[in-house]
Amino acid sequence: MDLMSFMEAMSMNSFPLIAAFFIGLMTALSPCPLATNITAIAYISKKIDNGKKTLLTGFIYTLGRMVTYVLLASLIVYIGVNVQSISFFLQKYGERILGPLLIFIGLIMLNLIKLPSLKSGDRINKLKEKLSEKGYLGAFLLGVLFALAFCPFSAVLFFGMLIPLALKFSDGILIPSVFAFATGLPVIIFSFVLVFSVSKLGSIMGKVQKFEKYIRYFVALVFIIVGIYYTWRIWI
Amino acid sequence: MNKKLIYGIAIGVFILLLVFFVPKYMNGNVTASGETKLSSDIEKVEVYHFHATRQCYTCKTVGAFSEETVNTYFSNELKSGKLVFAHINVDLPENKALVDKYKAKGSSLLIGVYGKDGNFSKQEDTNVWYKIDNKEDYMNYLKGVIESRLSGE
């Protein structure tokens, strides 16, 4: 049995959580989520000086994806929002905004664009700083945003397979959560690998920190390249 | 913040969700088998490949393989009008009625069956998406699906 027929069989497993997991894995391997996950991996590897944090960042990115998918599924399952209109809307606009936005984030990272600093409330700013320093908030927002970018194929998997499953069992929470976990799995696995290899190369770490500036440039470049890929696919 | 507490809460929520939803899954399996069966008098079967103006590689493949399947195995049915195949661009206003009728949500392969008694039923086929790596497999599978629809199963 080849991989695809295995994936197909598992995605129709009568236990919906197993089916949701394999539909999610299939999604993770399809072009658009793959591109967003690579971007996320680049973002996570930006800070590799602390193993636990790196690992947690991977999980928080997946949590962000989970929030989006659960929200979408709940809107459809519990509130009865029209699947067709939500699907068309996201396929039309979600992807269109993503490309330019990624390029924009990349340019900010390169310090080519400077954001005006907000000075409303010191406490909020401090909290923001704390969160963004660790990269948790960024990873979470990245997850929320990236999950909204539906390409035709990932839309088939989500709206054509996962949503019918969620509707059948009137479950807008657990089924999409398991699905989301599977879509973020490559990122989680990669952060494990990263943490493992970094701890092996502990002695080099001092040097890695010196190169942090270059790592940031590299990450910014990944953002811009993925952003250009999306923009090119859609606008040209 | 206490990290152990956060992990504890997360695991607790997960277990609660499992307890709440798993019984539902067991019930859902029973009700799922109660689908309506069509009469054996089939007026017409429609196979539509819905797509947006901008198509992904996989979407194009699904369209092309489906068209080839219909042309290879069902040329007689196509001529007699018992089987209809078309690529439908969901972005074009003239296709809106069809898109709404089939409730197409984007790129998809949908099969509609008209009974002689005026019954209409439609079904999205998502299995085809897993078969685009193997054209032979794809065509055999879709041939089987269309045959069974034409014979009223």
Description:
The complex is a heterodimer of chains A (236) and B (153). With 236 residues, chain A is mainly α. Helix content of chain A is 81%, strand content 0%. Chain A is globular and about 55 Å long. Chain B is of the alpha+beta class and 153 residues long. A 4-stranded mixed beta sheet of chain B has the order 2-1-3-4, with helices on both faces. In chain B, helix 2 (57-73) packs across helix 5 (135-150). The termini of chain B are far apart. At the A-B interface, helix 1, helix 2, helix 5, helix 8 and helix 9 of A face helix 1 and helix 2 of B.
Annotation, overall tally of beta strands of chain A: 0
- By DSSP (H or I, 4+ residues per run), the number of helices of chain A equals 11
Secondary-structure-based class of chain B equals alpha+beta
Helical coverage of chain B, percent range: 40-55%
Topology:
The complex is a heterodimer of chains A (236) and B (153).
Chain A: H1 3-11, H2 16-29, H3 31-44, H4 51-77, H5 83-109, H6 122-134, H7 136-148, H8 152-168, H9 174-200, H10 205-210, H11 212-235
Helix pairs in contact in A: 1-2, 2-8, 2-9, 3-7, 3-9, 3-11, 4-7, 4-9, 5-11
Chain B: H1 3-31, E1 42-51, H2 57-73, H3 75-80, E2 83-89, H4 96-102, E3 108-115, E4 120-124, H5 135-150
Helix pairs in contact in B: 2-5
Brief account:
The complex is a heterodimer of chains A (236) and B (153). Chain A has eleven helices and no strands.
